[in-house]
Amino acid sequence: MSKDTYQHLEELRQYMRGKHVDAVIIPGTDPHQSEYTCDYWKYREYLTGFTGDNGTAVVTLDKAGLWTDSRYFLQAQEQLADSGFVMYKERVPGEPTVHEWLASELGEDALVAIDGRMFTLVEANRLENFCGQNGFMLATDFFPSDAIWTGRPEMPSGPASVYPVEYDGEDVDSKMDRVMRAVKAAGADGMLVTALDEIAWLFNLRGTDVAYTPVVMAYAFITNHDRVLFIDQNKVTKQVKDHLKQHDVKVKDYDEVEKFLSHVSERLTVALDPHRVSDRLGQALMCSKLYIASPIIDLKAVKNEVEIAGYREAMKADGAALVRAFMWIEANAAQGITELDVDNRLQQERARCELYRGDSFHTIAGYKEHGAIVHYEASEQSASTLAPDGLLLVDTGGQYLNGTTDITRTITLGNVTAQQRHDYTLVLKGHLALARAVFPYNTYGSQLDILAHGPLWQEGLNYGHGTGHGVGHFLGCHEGPFQIRMNYIPAPLRLGEVTSDEPGLYKTGEYGIRIENLLLVVPAMSNEDYGDFYKFEVLTLMPYDTRLIDKSMLSPEEVKQVNDYHARVLAELGPLLSPEEQQWLAAKTQAI
């Protein structure tokens, strides 16, 4: 791979010289700012060989760097070896930022270039200010992926599908009305929507264009009088066409969006989210623009009763699949199975549910030292062979028509050490503390994060990733607006939102431990003097590994919490399992 990527790097530099470009910045996203991108837009991966979800490549005529966060440090070091790229760590003291690095490498009047389709309005504005402050020039119309990418994959061609109201709980007209009320209240006449999960939610459409997230490539423009969907018309089946016609949606070709926006009436004020809309499309709009956070983010995050009921059923199906998969792992750990076999078995077991439509992200099956790589992905070359010894971390999730799941369990395959029990129990204590939290209305994720981190901090230990993220409903496994993490995110937790609860601990070269459930925000109590209080309902159904629990480290309250949860897991999953599977689960859920 390094030989190919080095050649790709030299091809880019030759193209840069022809355009008199001194530096180019290449993010790992697409024009919709998607977390996962289709192969057509993976130019950064083609150029660098780095496959992580987060990473920005910067190339000058004689140097190249890639910036990524702590989840991918080990992965990036391996994949960038001999590629011509140097890895830089984001948000690590002593490491330069992209801007600092460019400022030190470029001379006055240097031309910095980007593909304006890949940068949001906010990102492009920041870059423009940076260039102005340093005497650089900025070009936003540099498209090397279109010009020099040999063998570029085709755009995805799978058909769109209608998402039934029986699973969604709200029709398109109702959603449009709610969105337009928010848009009008903000002072705009219409809205440009570019995020794929927002479009899928708003139009009750799903697709297969992006891995792990059931969305379709599209843009949307809506006002009180017009609803326009820009989509490859080959994707529009008769069912989809009838569905859109029923809700007065006009269909235009995906590539027509820029031209359409340039002709929007100057009398209109159009709302757009500058953190989500690309600079290219934002600049195409010549009318009055109102920059606001997309109201769809908030509306989509609060689940209705139909969606919540769907989550609960999806968790049962997922839990039953996990029981069967983990039974198989334990029974075959000494038979030469690999981390890839674990991934495949999970998919096989989930596929027994007729509502299963695929994984919600790439399964992380990290055995021993691989468990310490936070976003490890096993390959044919890297996959470890399991043995009846050490820890196995499995972070996995499924997309079901009635809900999205995300769970992590760490189990022992044999020879448990006292240190492993100690570390596992520290992580478990933080996980349990967050799950039993009671908190007032308008509480932010950063105010709850210490509950999960606290037991680790008491011993000088830590983890660098977030503690909790929002989860979509048969949509993105990671969604906003809130997060539970150390840094402040200005979005409080609200009733009906679903969050993960996933503290961890990672010891490089030894093992990783993470425990994750999904939680639903529900009412706790109401106080005349102090207002409403919320709590969490645990949605995920799968036992913890009690062989790794040091009961002496748990309080009576924590012991009861584990035992009550395990009793519920057995009661809810038991009817879905065979007698042999029930027996296995009963043993795993015995009171500690």
From the structure above, extract its key features.
592 residues; alpha+beta; Creatine Amidinohydrolase, Chain A, domain 1; Creatine Amidinohydrolase; 3 domains; six-stranded mixed beta sheet; 21% strand; globular; protease; metal-binding; Aminopeptidase P family protein; aminopeptidase; Pept_M24B
CATH class placement of the largest domain: Alpha Beta
Number of domains: 3
* Biggest sheet details: 6 strands, mixed
CA(first)-CA(last) distance: 50 Å
Structural class: alpha+beta
Number of strands: 28
Query: How many separate helices?
Result: 19
Radius of gyration: 25 Å
In terms of DSSP E residues, the strand content is: 15-25%
Mean pLDDT: 96
Arrangement of strands in the largest sheet: 4-3-2-1-5-6
Which stretches are low in confidence, meaning pLDDT under 50 for 5 or more residues running?
none
| Helix amount | 25-40%
The CATH superfamily of the largest domain is known as Creatinase/methionine aminopeptidase superfamily
Basic shape: globular
Domain Peptidase M24 C-terminal: 533-592
GO molecular function: metal ion binding; metalloaminopeptidase activity
Protein name: Aminopeptidase P family protein
Domain Peptidase M24: 310-521
